[in-house]
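Long-time lurker. I teach an intro course on protein structure, and each term I like to show students one example going from raw sequence to a predicted 3D structure in token notation. This year I'd like something fresh instead of my usual example. Would anyone be willing to generate the tokens for the chain below so I can use it in lecture? Attribution to the forum is fine with me.
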Amino acid sequence: MSNVAEFGKKVKDQEKKWMENVSWVVGIDMGKEKLFCALMNVKKELICRFDVACSLAGYHELLNRVKKEVMSSGKVVFALEPTGHYWMVLGQFLEDHQQSYVLIHPLVVARSREVQRLSKGKTDALDARLIGELACDQSITSTQIPEDYWATIRFYAREYMDREREIAREKHRMVSYLETTLPDFIDTFPKPWCRSGRACLRFLAHFREASKGDGKHFETQIRKHLTGKRLMTTRVRRLHAMLQQGTVLGLRAGRQAIFFRIIQCLDRLEIYEVQEEAAKQAMLEVFYSY
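-- Reply from a regular --
Happy to contribute to a lecture. Here you go:
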């Protein structure tokens, strides 16, 4: 947001150079299947509107149409609104063909739409013209397609953060399910996804069998599911003592199905953890290679 130029405020020198000596601006509203385009001069006088397909052939048609309309008289800048991921494909195409383009922040477009039309309604053809006019006003951002090195790190980082969010969701689900069917487990293992907690949960998936037997048998069975070296024996024994009580706090109806869901959460959690670590290592490998 700090890179967005306010209305009537001059953009930074780095951004301003993109609009130097510009004669024509092509505002583009991007969709999944079509590009809606508005060609105008820097005085915001509309020359024409047209649309092309979102394809390689359509992008070439865009360049040919603009070239035909302006008859190679003056510099042309394409103005894009970077919503979604579609703009990056067009941006890469424009860079490959030595064409200049600028980006208009989506918030700037949205606010301008409300001011000009007194409505939040979106119309592709009108938005294309609005985007072009905002470029003429130099209400542009400094965001462009980064170099390969930074793009690679960014995409690895996004994968890492996506997995991080998924891990947090699965942990939250596990806690909510346990608070429903076996809340005392949370008292024993405040972080049920710890290695000892995971081993206990996998054994408790067969709840009726797990609640039978003495403490030694209980501990032996849990060790079969332990992936680490150290078992929190004190907490395991406390858990066994709790299960041996006549009444266990929590919803009994559907307990088997709830533990099935808990194990599903745990399985997904472990997959996401492996993927998170893989993304982290890939990102670090690229970082240290430069």
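Some talking points for your students: Strands lie at 22-30, 34-41, 46-53, 75-80, 100-103. Confidence is low (pLDDT under 50) at residues 1-11.
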